[in-house]
Amino acid sequence: xxxxxxxxxxxxxxxxxxxxxxxxxxxxxxxxxxxxxxxxxxxxxxxxxxxxxxxxxxxxxxxxxxxxxxxxxxxxxxxxxxxxxxxxxxxxxxxxxxxxxxxxxxxxxxxxxxxxxxxxxxxxxxxxxxxxxxxxxxxxxxxxxxxxxxxxxxxxxxxxxxxxxxxxxxxxxxxxxxxxxxxxxxxxxxxxxxxxxxxxxxxxxxxxxxxxxxxxxxxxxxxxxxxxxxxxxxxxxxxxxxxxxxxxxxxxxxxxxxxxxxxxxxxxxxxxxxxxxxxxxxxxxxxxxxxxxxxxxxxxxxxxxxxxxxxxxxxxxx
Amino acid sequence: xxxxxxxxxxxxxxxxxxxxxxxxxxxxxxxxxxxxxxxxxxxxxxxxxxxxxxxxxxxxxxxxxxxxxxxxxxxxxxxxxxxxxxxxxxxxxxxxxxxxxxxxxxxxxxxxxxxxxxxxxxxxxxxxxxxxxxxxxxxxxxxxxxxxxxxxxxxxxxxxxxxxxxxxxxxxxxxxxxxxxxxxxxxxxxxxxxxxxxxxxxxxxxxxxxxxxxxxxxxxxxxxxxxxxxxxxxxxxxxxxxxxxxxxxxxxxxxxxxxxxxxxxxxxxxxxxxxxxxxxxxxxxxxxxxxxxxxxxxxxxxxxxxxxxxxxxxxxxxxxxxxxxxxxxxxxxxxxxxxxxxxxxxxxxxxxxxxxxxxxxxxxxxxxxxxxxxxxxxxxxxxxxxxxxxxxxxxxxxxxx
Lengths: 318, 401
Known about the structure:
By secondary structure, chain A is an alpha/beta fold.
């Protein structure tokens, strides 16, 4: 048998009409750190093509390694096969240039923390929004992974503020398939509806939350954590026992201290400071326990020590 | 009469254009990786030449447009205008309890297939996408749905019910539905013809063995039991599916490995079966090679695989109160002579005799394996689901005209 004939497919279309691309077939992620990589992986797992932007080739390589780790963990838990991993990785590409986002109908900014210091970056994020507006078509959606920052503020200087929206992935909790969707003051209904569709496409549930610092998840979590620190500080109970009451007693999937260690104590202190600034209530003042851990750089899983002590793989030693 | 047969999967569309006046295959092929990077269409022309078209194929509708495009193209096509297509036959995976035969597609039928999405969330949506695409692109051409489950709707209730609270059957339709119906129906009918049996008065066991596999008991032309159940995972051990497993294992593992329903599903559907046991491959050819090289887990997987086939066939001999013919089909059933030999030797107690020299040479063609004095006839019948779908399509179109 002779070799197969290989040709381009376009000539065989029945009509020359401009086809509508399926919505969200290609999405962008700015910043592929701890949170960005979760978003990129989730989207690629659900069949989308993902372009992520990082500052350097080295950062791109790190991001690939992070995504590969996540997928390997899934394979280890029987949730994925090697072939599926290959297919997913082939859908993800890294870049250092904003131009590579052209053609994306949805870009999520996820650079809210400096990975090293936990410092928040309002100005840089505004700049990201401006850069995105330059390369994206006017109906592409620009989203920000927000929890305490106000998306209306981030979008303020853009021409098309109606396509900006806030999203909050609970990226620190494994398999937490829910997104808080946060329309800004100028967000159009169309943008909101499209983002709801995005959530469905990646198999996440969603809730609409009014623009506010801390939304539902962060506000509830931080108060619970602060109170747990209070119980700890008063010598009433231990880290392990408090977590056990939450997991066994209340059916939480993991305890509050375990979650805090995964999120990073340094970030938590910043988040609490933010809520304290916004609401002025004493309940948002970071507990001295948190401040002490933060000063000692006992940030949690990332440093191998926080409320618990961890091995290299992030498993609790004690 | 020219019939286009479509089999739409979640990311692929297989197609075959058949001229049913003289049973000739005009063209066939598949669109692969729909909505993903590197999507393509592979096409085999009437003269056997293969053509690969590369480019973006974002959704089923676009994939079908290209299929129609190449079928009608001057260069590689088989028809000069779409008016030559008399009907389109679709493979639809799940018809639930709503369909016991193939159907002319109407709005009502589409509505019912949509209602079955709950129990076939992976399969029915792409099938529907294909039906809708044809309705839009070829509005004048009638379409027929041929269901994987329809043939098994004759299974009696005591065989299709599970021993769980009846309320769950009433609420969710939890019961055995069975799959591969089109294949079991085709090969059993074909076998009756080939062997000179009266189909309406016969006891036939068909073994469809491929990467997925099922065994079906057919009495007087009606399916009375099938090894696959509510989903295709029950029954035989398959390429990557576990087949029957004690339910206690599932709950034990969920607890021990702290995994949820989606991981459990991947574990038993994709990490298990021949691949999971052998650690080598899900393909029986690789397993046989590894086994011959002394790989003990390949040996184990091989023996488990054939043992399970024997077990189901034996139990169906009882179900049918004897058997007139056993039919092997599917990639493994048509080609793996060793498995047929094992099963037949174990069944000699029912008076089954096979010419093993003949068996060793019988691959991918219709062959009678049993000797003239055998009490049970054994044969290989290559399956042809597309032909069955096309002939159902014609039958329905003619009865509506």
